[in-house]
Amino acid sequence: MSRLQVVSGKGGTGKTTVAAALALALAAEGKRTLLVEVEGRQGIAQLFEAEALPYEERKIAVAPGGGEVFALAIDAELALLDYLQMFYRLGSAGRALKKLGAVDFATTIAPGVRDVLLTGKACEAVRRKDKKGRYVYDHVVMDAPPTGRITRFLNVNDEVAGLARIGPIHNQAQAVMRVLKSPETAVHLVTLLEEMPVQETVDGIAELREAGLPVGRVLVNMVRPSVLDVPVPTDVRRTELAKALSGAGLGGARKGGLAEQLVDPLLAQAAEYEERVALERGQRGLLAELGLPVHELELLTEGIDLAGLFRLAAELRKQGVA
Amino acid sequence: MTLDQAPSLDVDPLIDDPTTRIIVCCGAGGVGKTTTAAALGLRAAERGRKVVVLTIDPARRLAQSMGIDSLDNTPRQVKDLDGDGGGGELHAMMLDMKRTFDEIVEAHADPERAEAILNNPFYQSLSAGFAGTQEYMAMEKLGQLRARDEWDLIVVDTPPSRSALDFLDAPKNLGSFLDGKFIRVLMAPAKVGGRAGMKFLNVGMSVMTGTLGKLLGGQFLKDVQTFVAAMDTMFGGFRTRADATYRLLQAPGTAFLVVAAPERDALREAAYFVERLAAEEMPLAGLVLNRVHGSGAARLSAERALAAAENLAEPRIVDQGAGKEELRNSPDSTASSPTPAGSPTSADDPEAQQPSEAQQLAAGLLRLHAERMQLLAREQRTRDRFTALHPEVPVTEVAALPGDVHDLAGLRDIGDRLASGDRPAGAA
């Protein structure tokens, strides 16, 4: 099982939720995982119903069987100051740089520095060992930028290593790249069974593969349960249907009766449903062609709360994802 | 049905009004922003306006739906519009960040300098799109399109940002960096510390550039310095244009549409955006609520539908007193509900213990209906929460479609739904 698991997906597919569930699942049975957020949205804190996360690793949940999930919202600016302090002991000079706008410059405008810092911090956590030489975290799960940006985000270190051809940033960028391109890393993509997210997933995987980044799994989120187990026959007999509805106590079956009036709208809903199911079948087919493990997670209709998160984590374990 | 019903958003008066020159569609990712922008553009064009749609989303499907193989950085005319010779036109383009950036350089620097910039490795990375560039270039392009004055309506969708707010900040950020202190330091440390009293600062500067040199590698810093020096002439322009575009967005000719789906996160983001627009004094026209579900049988509640489905799915006791027994079992129905004219069970083969095909189908349809009604209720709750927070924001609702849009007819259909703003039947 890869030690760094990167979770991406099109906006609106629930990648933060899946990343959190994965971190929980990986932490089961006494393991320790770190869930990393890089986009400054505090989505993890919201999911775990906690206060906004500071820039520090903080225990956020206990997994079944005693494992622990830590969370970290990486702030590029603080990561840079951290970094300056670590390598250069730049306490006050760091503040002066900040005052000048250099830190802002480096973390928002300078090409890639921001992404280098974010991926660098995650990789540092992957490699970190305690005094006894054991890894501090068994797994690091990253709630990464969306599919459209993921390859560039992960590959930024290659580019930066090319731009900054010597110096610690160059070395750092290369070290990060070694982790990201190794089997220690897996990039998972979250999708829905809809055309655009599936298309983005297919495109995203092609990009990741081309960049030599290790693609993990496809996680299909919010899969709706099948409701209509009997297909609607093409020659549906409306009068019998009306009678059946009427028999269930829903009003009269004669023309204009309450049960009879239900027939058309109910059939219309069924037609919509069947159209959607057919579309979903097509999307499943496209995903199957990718040659990757595909996992489906059911839609939690009441929205995601802590209980829902644990359910998703259990499901991921059941499916062997963690 | 709620007491604090939101006012409804009338799309047609908005797009027909000749003083409306820019419509910005913004909202969280995955709510149909781009499709909304395209549908609005098409509708406005077919109602006689000369429209350009600027999209940031590289969705090929959208381009294809407008009959264009691929969109690029130049507006392309969309053919086969309806509209009764009203003189309307629709053009569409997709933002190419790098190309837009290159064009700015080419337009604002002499050829030699332009070449130096375009070949600079730092510039090449910056323009190929790191954080912030896309948002900035979207604004820049919008400013350009507006300045060309060839279209009387520009519809733009915003970049898929980390948060919907990024693009409002981008011009200010980039503008302030590019003529900020730091850039000046990089360019000419000596100038900044020129005055006698500032000498200590000068020392600090060289420490700093030294540090940066160590950190980034000397070559990198040199690339940055070359870049900055080469761009020097353009800095003022950047800032001025960023400010101008920002003011353009505040002007009366601009209308913001916040796009959302009736889901918790999307509406939370929408609420946030509404507040931000107000704080920035940007004119909000209203909320477009996509993918709203309805039902033609809304008066049948989820609970009753489920109870009836259960009733139908149970194997029958053959000699049961047919309809009456079932009626007693079923939850209390509408008082006027007439007694069924003969129960289906009585018509069944006497030895059939299992529900008939029609009954199984009816049970399935009822379960499907219950699911739909539960969805409606959830959508209603999230919507109510938004309306309670922002009762002043006009709303239009667009009924959910089972699939994606693939052609102009599909976009037109969405346009109709946008304009009618009718809640889908049964959506409370």
UniProtKB/TrEMBL annotation, chain A:
Signal peptide: none annotated. SUPFAM superfamilies: P-loop containing nucleoside triphosphate hydrolases. It comes from the Bacteria. Residues 5-180 form the ArsA/GET3 Anion-transporting ATPase-like domain. It holds the Pfam family ArsA_ATPase. InterPro entries: ArsA/GET3_ATPase-like, ATPase_ArsA/GET3, P-loop_NTPase. PANTHER family: ARSENICAL PUMP-DRIVING ATPASE ARSENITE-TRANSLOCATING ATPASE, ATPASE RV3679-RELATED. This is ArsA-related P-loop ATPase. It comes from Streptomyces cavernicola.
UniProtKB/TrEMBL annotation, chain B:
It comes from the Bacteria. Residues 317-358 are annotated as: Disordered. This is ArsA family ATPase. It comes from Streptomyces cavernicola. Residues 330-347 have a biased composition (Low complexity). SUPFAM superfamilies: P-loop containing nucleoside triphosphate hydrolases. Residues 20-292 form the ArsA/GET3 Anion-transporting ATPase-like domain. InterPro entries: ArsA/GET3_ATPase-like, ATPase_ArsA/GET3, P-loop_NTPase. The lineage of its organism: Bacteria, Bacillati, Actinomycetota, Actinomycetes, Kitasatosporales. Pfam families: ArsA_ATPase (PF02374). Gene3D superfamilies: P-loop containing nucleotide triphosphate hydrolases.
